[in-house]
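Narrative summary of target 7.
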Amino acid sequence: MADLLFLYTSIATLFGIYAILALSFNLEYGYAGQPNLGKVFFFSIGAYVAGILVAHGTAALTGYTGDLFTAQAANARLLYAAANPGTILSFFIGALALAGLVGAGFGVLASYPALRLRGDFLAIVLIAVGEVGRVFVRVYTPLAGGNIGIGGVPSPFVFLGDRGARVAFSVLVLLLALGTFLFASRLSNSPLGRLLKSVRDDELASNVFGKRTPWVKAQILAVGSGIAAIAGVLWAFWFQTVAADDFIPQLTFLVVAMVLLGGAGNHRGVLVGAITMTVLDHVTRPSFYAILGFEANLAFDINYLRYILIGLMIILILMFRPGGLLPEKPVRTPALDIARALRRPAPAADTLQAERTQPP
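Modeled conformation, tokenized:
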């Protein structure tokens, strides 16, 4: 019998993680015009922070002095988590906070090339940053286990059992995605949101009007990178392992496809794009059909179909609907509402007189 609970929690959790990632990219690109195609790098930072914190934290508490990246060490962490669930929950909360700060710091560093480069050149540089970071972690074993990675990152809800932990973690991820959506919407509809759009549309004009565009870029890249790192923590605790080769550029382009499909500059559209691409990501994996009890016997690897469809979708969107399914709307702020009210024509004098004399 198909384990539908496993399938539902997988879709819900990955949708929440992808939604957080896509919302962070929408703030950077959709509102500020910064094409951060190194998004997977900042995402991986959160995963590494989670893995390193759990590995070294449990080793310090248990007095373990062996290799932290072996299967024995991973199994020891899982056993420790089962016996000390409160400690693992504390590690999870600490990883969220620490990853947000570290990700924001790297986002500020990424703002420096953004000061001199724009458009395609900035995108290429940030892609290179992501790949350099992945290769460095892959070959420098002491940081995150190199090719092996860090295993045995236990669920923070291990005390609920396997099924209960999956459900609880899925609900938590969805709540965090909702909080990210509300935060991004509030930020976008603030004066900072109008400033981000002005930098996106005409950076020179923003400079002329006295706006500190370098500081604006640093701010939004710090915010977006911090949010992406938090999503990386969720990824690590969900899959319970952190490996450098999980953070490949295709993940960035999956997030880009979500934003372009839903509509850059529209957070509701981003959620539509995120759920669409999450379902597409699942149905193009052999494990999806294995869960349902089917065997996908195709003449090619179905995983490559995912990359083909993502690339084709991006091309079709840019050709026929560049605004996405839900195009960008004007920023809703009190100042804009007041301006609209002032532009409304005043009622005629005879209309006002008729309203005053009309009996109640």
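The first strand starts at residue 150 and ends at 151.
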